[in-house]
Amino acid sequence: MLRSIAVAVGFALAAGGCVATPAARPNATAEIQLTENERALRTAVRALDARYEEAGWSVGDAGQSAMRLAAMLLNGGSDEERPLPSMAYLESRRADGAPASAILADVREARDLAAEVTTASMAISSRGLVQSRERLAADLALTERAIADVRRAVDLFETVAGELSAELNEDDRNALNARILTLRQEFTRLGEAADALSERRRALPGSIIG
């Protein structure tokens, strides 16, 4: 998958609903209106990204552990112990009094937001309306941003389910694991959507603007 270049292009295009591109004459620009599916993708990714961040679903334990180790090495001592994101999230759900029900609702919402991105991304590649490699690179970068969020959310929910397992009866445990599986399946579909965008971009004969 594309990385730094695609991400840079993607966030430039994600900011608005049109793209400024070079026109036939020097020093002139023309605005290309994004397709309905491209606009839908941008809306879906913004909604997913904002909600995942707000809810604390896309913060990885591994990243915090690495930062804690770095702080210890830099400071020559132990960093102040703080709960890992998954544990902080679980404690917040325990405080609500019904952690299993709350987590089930969170996973369903996380999956639904991911599905919106998948649908819009797949529509861009399947309908063939976008004939610009640059725009497809931007669409791919946005899809990859959602993939990164969803991957961290899957990791978090699976960790939380493991920690909570002993407190649940078999039915609740199975229901939670099944719900998390739907999010993992949507993560797989997002990857397939990104691959389709990448394939479509590579299939274009050249960099076609407009």
TrEMBL record:
Top-level lineage group: Bacteria
UniProt key word Signal: yes
Keywords: Signal
Cleavable signal peptide: 1-20
Protein known as: Uncharacterized protein
